[in-house]
Amino acid sequence: xxxxxxxxxxxxxxxxxxxxxxxxxxxxxxxxxxxxxxxxxxxxxxxxxxxxxxxxxxxxxxxxxxxxxxxxxxxxxxxxxxxxxxxxxxxxxxxxxxxxxxxxxxxxxxxxxxxxxxxxxxxxxxxxxxxxxxxxxxxxxxxxxxxxxxxxxxxxxxxxxxxxxxxxxxxxxxxxxxxxxxxxxxxxxxxxxxxxxxxxxxxxxxxxxxxxxxxxxxxxxxxxxxxxxxxxxxxxxxxxxxxxxxxxxxxxxxxxxxxxxxxxxxxxxxxxxxxxxxxxx
Length: 281
Fold this sequence. Notes:
Elements: H1 2-76, E1 84-88, H2 95-102, H3 110-115, H4 117-127, E2 131-140, E3 143-150, E4 153-159, E5 162-167, E6 172-173, E7 184-186, H5 192-203, H6 207-211, E8 213-218, E9 227-232, E10 237-241, H7 245-249, H8 252-257, E11 263-266, E12 272-275
Helix pairs in contact: 2-4
Function: Cell division protein that may be involved in stabilizing or promoting the assembly of the division complex.
Protein name: Cell division protein DivIB
Keywords: Cell cycle, Cell division, Cell membrane, Membrane, Transmembrane, Transmembrane helix
């Protein structure tokens, strides 16, 4: 009786175990199916990601390569070189002189002129002392405009035995153009420092006043070693000090309008005028 009961318990336990094992197998199959379906759904996304990633890596190599290739093609092509130059702002210099000094001429590389302005301006200053600064702008596919600012020519002096241009910087330049209406300088042969100071002062004068000067003579006295005599084209004579010439000469036009006849305008101390031969002044 007891054995019969044990057998029934054993069979129930065995049936329960079989049921659990069967359910486990079914659950395992369901999980496998779900995992397999998830992989099938994610596979296109994975492939798209791989394609996108490979394309990105390829572009990081190809884009710089094509940029360099296009730059090389441009450099060796005619489109990289200037075929037309226009010079503006020049007064004493000719357009050809500006082009020669700066290198901004037909056949020059556009990229150098436009993107290396400091070097172009420095080169022009070194090649021609009359050049103060240069600026180049692109006005067409192969056309440039050269804007030049000059150091004014303020006269002609005898230097090292021959005539040279005197610039507003106090430096000298060889004469290469036809000369018209330039100021002449006298009495400075052994006074280079005074000539340099006078040149800088004259260079600060307006073009109108500067063009009215015929000659500047260094005429020191025992009490004034800076005295200048300035002979004007209108017949007047100006007495001034070299160190204050630019400051005082700006009053010249207004003083002249109050004069009835040509005479002397004294700008050494204060500013007043008197007729030639008037000893009371």
